[in-house]
Amino acid sequence: MSGVLLRACGLGLTGAASTSAISKLQNAFVTAGSSYRNMAVYVEVKENRVQQALSELNRLRNDAGLPDELRKRRYYINGSDARFLRDKNAYKHAVGAVVVERIKWVMRRKGTK
């Protein structure tokens, strides 16, 4: 099965891979955003390591933000709540950037002494 390409994304498949799981993977497509519709993600199965390919696919799915997008689309969010969530996420990212800069500063300082 070396060199087989699985086309999939958006499926939270975990556990042992069976032929039905592989057929589900082969028929799945990415439907994350309007610009990404019908764009397939390919994961190569090397040396019959299907479990490793599934974990790589799951990682790609999470990096693309599909679980968050699906969670957001499950319910309607009115304007004020959407604005609140957007501001909250912006604040979290800003705080994270400050923490990263402080850690870099400490590491540089420790390296100079």
UniProtKB/TrEMBL annotation:
Keywords: Ribonucleoprotein, Ribosomal protein, Signal. One of its GO terms (cellular component) is ribonucleoprotein complex. Residues 1-16 form the signal peptide. InterPro entries: Ribosomal_bS21. GO terms for biological process: translation. GO terms for molecular function: structural constituent of ribosome. Belongs to the bacterial ribosomal protein bS21 family. This is Mitochondrial ribosomal protein S21. It comes from Astrephomene gubernaculifera.
